[in-house]
Design goal:
Length: 106
Amino acid sequence: MEHAVIESADKFALSKDQQEKLNKYKIRVRKENELFLRHHPEVACLISDFLHEVLLSRPEHVIEFAAQHFTQPNIRNRITRQVNEERKMLRRENRLALKNENGKTS
């Protein structure tokens, strides 16, 4: 009986070529997604902002809360501010890293 289960599972297994194509596809999609997210830091800010508010409020009806959260008139300004703050922080970190790197090579 166990042998029959293994045989039926093998019918659905990918061939070596299919598995290789699938792996290449997954890698390509991950790279594309990562590039998109790097060019759109507002996505991370939107998600972070929403999770922060959900965890603070702990609403009983999360879907309704999400609908209200993402339709707030000031959300664009709030997220834009957060993105700008993160960019400033990254620039500071980069300057410090360059300073430290230059200090090590002197």
